[in-house]
């Protein structure tokens, strides 16, 4: 693994570890609320403004300042974290508003190197590793919340932020962007359906936090095992994830979530019910989390406009959790059968979301394969034309724009004209396929063609 790979994974993992442990209804926040007797829904305030921040960031942020956004976010989050020692109760909500909005800057800034440095084939394992790091931190603070007072927890939770700051300093700024330079044509249909799927699934995340977990909180072993399935499934995906198709993640996540709420409705209040529900629910969110981050990275890579895709996608994600949280807070007061009513709401969201899964899978497969096979892979010419191409490419063909090509780009053109696939060209030149894609894009722009078919046609006409 490269240094950038490790630093990028550590930077997100430590920052998310802080978010999960503190402002995102984390154990540090809960401990402080209980000890100080606060009546505000501070976690919900954070989640709402975290979602709003993603929506705003998708329209106003500039990609070239990505690292500046990360440092700015870290500075604000650390300042607020420290100031909470001294702020009165009435000012804590304002602190959550500020942290919720500022933390989106870090995630959005981080998304830019993630899209451009992590290849599609590595993204599942990469995100699994990042989430393992964040959840290990989260579990640590869950355990420590039983032994440390709220003031000490609030101090110790600064360390993940400091670690994230240290790692962020080592992220390289000078790299060649592999994604499309601009969002040439944002696929509105894909964005809408993907956002609808994310919203429909993650509204159940709000039910999990506000209804499911509180229902089992009285069990003695609840604190120690509730997040164990999540980490175990992440470890499995970290080891074997790249062998699984991304679309399968969505189907597995949706199916396991449906089974989880069925078990919650039927086995509510029992230890066995908690174990089954928790395993299914936590496992489903592993698949959905990996799917969401992997797909957002891939579509942003293909179409460009990384901040737009991540902003809209993560807005749907976090806003759905806030809506589910607010709904769950009302459902839990509907009487003894609230668990059945919650399961019905969850099932309705899941069934409606299943309606868009086939379309989403078809759209993704069409766009992703078209990008790989049509835009990148050469269209194989007929045997007669192949012979002409081989004869022509023996000596580099003279384009009017030949002087604009670098030596490496000329090598790429020569291998393209010989009919080699992208994979073979990358192997012959000892470069990655993503780097080859950058060369091809530059070549097409300089020569004035749109894809390899036009390049070959130009040769055959000469």
From TrEMBL:
**Native source species:** Candidatus Syntrophonatronum acetioxidans
Q: Where are the transmembrane segments?
A: 37-57, 69-88, 94-114, 126-145, 151-171, 191-209, 221-241, 248-268, 274-302, 309-332, 338-360
Any single GO molecular-function term of the entry would be: DNA binding
Keywords, ordered alphabetically: DNA-binding, Membrane, Transcription, Transcription regulation, Transmembrane, Transmembrane helix
Biological classification of the source: Bacteria, Bacillati, Bacillota, Clostridia, Eubacteriales
Any Pfam family from its record, for instance, is GerE
Q: What is this protein called?
A: DNA-binding response regulator
**HTH luxR-type domain span:** 398-462
For biological process, the GO terms are: regulation of DNA-templated transcription
The superkingdom of the source organism is: Bacteria
Q: What PANTHER family does this protein map onto?
A: DNA-BINDING TRANSCRIPTIONAL ACTIVATOR DEVR_DOSR
């Amino acid at each position: 693994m490269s240094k950038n790979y490790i630093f990028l994974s550590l930077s997100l993992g430590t920052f998310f570890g802080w978010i999960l442990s503190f402002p995102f209804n984390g154990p540090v926040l809960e401990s402080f609320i209980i000890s100080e007797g606060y009546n505000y829904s501070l976690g919900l305030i954070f989640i709402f403004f975290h979602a709003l921040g993603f929506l705003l960031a998708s329209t106003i942020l500039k990609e070239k300042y990505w690292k500046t956004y990360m440092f700015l976010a870290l500075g604000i989050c650390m300042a607020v974290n420290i100031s909470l020692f001294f702020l009165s109760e009435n000012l804590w909500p304002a602190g959550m508003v500020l942290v919720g909005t500022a933390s989106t800057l870090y995630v959005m800034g981080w998304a830019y190197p993630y899209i451009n440095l992590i290849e599609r084939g590595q993204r599942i394992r990469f995100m699994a590793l990042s989430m393992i790091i964040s959840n290990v931190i989260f579990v640590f603070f869950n355990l420590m919340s039983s032994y440390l007072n709220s003031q000490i927890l609030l101090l110790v939770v600064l360390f993940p932020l400091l670690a994230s700051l240290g790692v962020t300093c080592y992220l390289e700024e000078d790299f060649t962007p592999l994604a499309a330079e601009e969002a040439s044509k944002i696929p509105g249909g894909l964005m809408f359906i993907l956002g609808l799927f994310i919203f429909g699934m993650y509204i159940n995340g709000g039910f999990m936090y506000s209804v499911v977990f509180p229902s089992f909180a009285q069990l003695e072993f609840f604190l120690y095992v509730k997040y164990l399935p999540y980490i175990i499934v992440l470890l499995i995906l970290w080891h074997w994830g790249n062998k699984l198709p991304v679309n399968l993640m969505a189907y597995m996540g949706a199916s396991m979530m449906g089974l989880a709420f069925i078990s919650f409705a039927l086995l509510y209040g029992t230890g066995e019910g908690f174990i089954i529900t928790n395993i299914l629910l936590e496992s489903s969110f592993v698949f959905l989390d990996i799917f969401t981050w992997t797909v957002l990275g891939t579509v942003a890579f293909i179409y460009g406009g990384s901040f737009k895709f991540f902003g809209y996608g993560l807005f749907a994600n976090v806003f759905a959790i806030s809506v589910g949280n607010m709904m769950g807070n009302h459902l839990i007061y509907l009487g003894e059968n609230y668990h059945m009513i919650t399961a019905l709401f969850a099932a309705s969201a899941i069934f409606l979301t299943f309606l868009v899964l086939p379309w989403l899978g078809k759209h993704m497969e069409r766009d992703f394969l078209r990008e790989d096979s049509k835009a990148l892979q050469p269209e194989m010419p007929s045997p007669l034309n192949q012979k002409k191409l081989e004869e022509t490419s023996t000596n580099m063909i003279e384009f009017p724009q030949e002087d604009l090509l670098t030596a490496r780009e000329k090598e790429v053109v020569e291998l393209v004209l010989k009919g080699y696939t992208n994979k073979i060209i990358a192997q012959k030149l000892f470069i990655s396929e993503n780097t080859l894609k950058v060369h091809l894009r530059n070549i097409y722009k300089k020569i004035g063609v749109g894809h390899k078919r036009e390049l070959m046609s130009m040769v055959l006409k000469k």
